[in-house]
Inverse folding.
C-alpha cells in the first residue's frame, strides 16, 4: 500500500485532541507522567514522509518513522488461562526472551500493491467489524456483491496481515501506560518486542526498523509491576537493555483510535496529503470500550 507506520511524541503545550486529528492518524493519546504529552500513531504515505511531520504545526520530542507492530495472541507461551481471568507467566519471561532473541531474522521482500477507493472502504469496514459481510458492504455503497468480493480477494486479502484480539478492561482502574526501551542490538530489541507481545495485557508493541528501539503500550497490573521492573533491571545488568523510560499513564478521556484514512485521500491511485482536512473528514473513529 505504501503506508509507513510511524509514532510521534509531543510535549503538551495546551493542545487538545483536535490539534492532532490529521489525515492518516490512527491513534491519538494523552499521557500523564513527569510531564504531559500527546502521542500520535500514523500510517504515512511513503511519498509524503518528508513533509508529513509539519502537518501538526509542532516539533515532536520523538519521531519514529518505520515501525513493525506486534499484538497479543491468545496462544502465547506467557499467557495463563485461569477460570475467570488471564494471568501472565513472568517467571519464564527472560527464558522466552533469550530464545526469541536467538532466532535468526527472516527478511521478506514485499511488493507494493496498489489500492483504490473501494479497497480502502472494505479495509475501513473490516477494521470496524471484521465479521461484516461483503454483501452488506456492497449494499451500503451501491456496488454488487461480485465487485466487492473481487476487490476483497484480489486487493485487500493480500494486504491483510492479521486480526488482533484485545482484552476489554477498565482503563480508569488499570490504565494503559507508555514505555520506551532501547537495546544493545537489533536481535535483542526484536526478541523483547515479541516477548512483550506474549503478555495478555499488551495493547501494542512498536519496533523501530531503523534502530534497536521499541515503544510499548499496555496495562501493567499492580501485582505484576515489580516483577516486570525486576526483569528490566536484570536485562539492563546483562547489557541487553541500554535505556528504559516510563513516560506515563494514558488518560482514557483522551485516547482515540481510528480506521485507515479512506475518504478523499487518493488521486488517480496516488496518495495525497489533504493537510487542510480533519481526520474526521477522511476516517472514522473506532469504538473502544474504556470500562
Amino acid at each position: 500500500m505504501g503506508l509507513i507506520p510511524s509514532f510521534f511524541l509531543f510535549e503538551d503545550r495546551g493542545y487538545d485532541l483536535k490539534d492532532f486529528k490529521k489525515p492518516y492518524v490512527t491513534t491519538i493519546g494523552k499521557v500523564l507522567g513527569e510531564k504531559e504529552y500527546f502521542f500520535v500513531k500514523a500510517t504515512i504515505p511513503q511519498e509524503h514522509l518528508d513533509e508529513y511531520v509539519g502537518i501538526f504545526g509542532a516539533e515532536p520530542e520523538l519521531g519514529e518513522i518505520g515501525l513493525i507492530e506486534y499484538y497479543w495472541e491468545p496462544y502465547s507461551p506467557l499467557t495463563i488461562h485461569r477460570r475467570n481471568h488471564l494471568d501472565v507467566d513472568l517467571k519464564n519471561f527472560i527464558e522466552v526472551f533469550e530464545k526469541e532473541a536467538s532466532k535468526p531474522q527472516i527478511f521478506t521482500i514485499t511488493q507494493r500493491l496498489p489500492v483504490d477507493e473501494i479497497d480502502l472502504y472494505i479495509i475501513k469496514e473490516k477494521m470496524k467489524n471484521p465479521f461484516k459481510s461483503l454483501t452488506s458492504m456492497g449494499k451500503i455503497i451501491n456496488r454488487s456483491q461480485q465487485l466487492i468480493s473481487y476487490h476483497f480477494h484480489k486487493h485487500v486479502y493480500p494486504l491483510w496481515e492479521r486480526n488482533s484480539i484485545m482484552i476489554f478492561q477498565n482503563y480508569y482502574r488499570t490504565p494503559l501506560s507508555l514505555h520506551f526501551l532501547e537495546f544493545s542490538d537489533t536481535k535483542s530489541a526484536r526478541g523483547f518486542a515479541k516477548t512483550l507481545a506474549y503478555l495478555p495485557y499488551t495493547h501494542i508493541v512498536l519496533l523501530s526498523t531503523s534502530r534497536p528501539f521499541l515503544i510499548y503500550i499496555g496495562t501493567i497490573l499492580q501485582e505484576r509491576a515489580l516483577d516486570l521492573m525486576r526483569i528490566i533491571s536484570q536485562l539492563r545488568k546483562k547489557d541487553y537493555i541500554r535505556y528504559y523510560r516510563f513516560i506515563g499513564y494514558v488518560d482514557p478521556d483522551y485516547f482515540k483510535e481510528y480506521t485507515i484514512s479512506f475518504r478523499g485521500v487518493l488521486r488517480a491511485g496516488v496518495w495525497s496529503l489533504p493537510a487542510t482536512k480533519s481526520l474526521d473528514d477522511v476516517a472514522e473513529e473506532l469504538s473502544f470500550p474504556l470500562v
Observations:
- The CA atoms of residues 148 and 204 lie 30 Å apart.
- The chain has a mean pLDDT of 89.
- The helical segments are 49-52, 93-102, 117-128, 134-140, 145-156, 186-196, 222-237, 279-282.
- Residues 3-67+254-282 form a domain with the Alpha-Beta Plaits fold (CATH 3.30.70).
